[in-house]
Amino acid sequence: MKPLVLVVDDEAQMREIVRYTLEETGCEVLEASGAASAWKLVKSSDLALVILDLMLPDGSGVELAKRIRSAQKLPILMLTALGDPQQRIEGLQAGADDYLPKPFSPRELSLRVEAILRRTHKMRQMEPRRELGPLSLDTARGRAYYLAKDLKLSETEFKLLRVLAEANGGVVTIRELLNQVWETTSTSGGRDMVKTTIYRLRAKLRSAGSDEMIHTLRGGGYILEYLGREN
Asked: Domain Response regulatory: where (predicted)?
C-alpha cells in the first residue's frame, strides 16, 4: 500500500509541485489549503506523513503541528522561509521531525520524504520494548514512558532517545545523531536541530518527574544515564 501524505499549503502552485513530486516518489497525496481543512483530514485519514507550511490563511502552522502531535504520532515535515532560523526553531519545538526551506528542489523534497518514511518503517521493525530503569521504550509503537507515564514524543524525539539508549551509557556525538536520526552527515543547521530536539526531550522527561537523564558533554556529545544501568 502506498503511503498517504497530506500536503498543507495555501498556494495552489506549491501544492501542485509537491503533489507531483510525491506521486513520482510513490506516495498518494491529499491536499489542504488551510488549518481547518487539514485538521479534518488528519482526523479522518490514515496518514503516513504531513507536509506543512508554517504560514496558513486561517491559523498558524506551528499551532496546527502542536495539535497534530498532541492527538497522534504522525511525522511532520515543515516548510519554512529560506534563511529564517527562528521559523525552523519554532517548527521543531512544535514537534516537526524535519524542515525544508523554500524554495527547494523537487529532488531534495523527495529525498527528505523518503528518509522520513524509511525511518518510520525501520522503527516498526525493531525490538518491541526496551527497559532502561524507570524509562521504557516501546519501539513497535514508537512510544516512550517514564514511570508508566506516556511522554508523547514526536517521531524524531523518539528516534533520538532510542539512539541514546542503544549507546548503553556511551557518548553519542552530534554527527552520529545527525546520521542516525536525520540520515545526514551535514552539520550545517544540524546542530540547531539536535539541540532543539534534546531540549524538548529533557522538558518532557522533567514533566514526567525525571531527574536529568540526558547530559551534554564538552566537545558536542550526549549521554543517557539512568538508575539501574550496568557500568
From this structure: 4-117
List Cα–Cα distances, 25 to 30, 41, 107, in angstroms.
15, 21, 10
SS3 154: coil
Q: What is the pLDDT of residues 163-222, one digit of tens each?
A: 999 888 889 999 889 988 988 766 667 888 899 999 999 999 999 998 889 999 987 799
Q: Which CATH number fits domain 127-224: 3.30.70.100, 3.30.830.10, 3.40.30.10, 1.10.10.10?
A: 1.10.10.10
Helix (H) or strand (E) holding 190: helix 190-207
Q: Supply the DSSP symbol for 2.
A: P
Q: What is the pTM of this model?
A: 0.58
- Grid coordinates representing 43 are 482526523
C-alpha cell at position 185 = 552527515
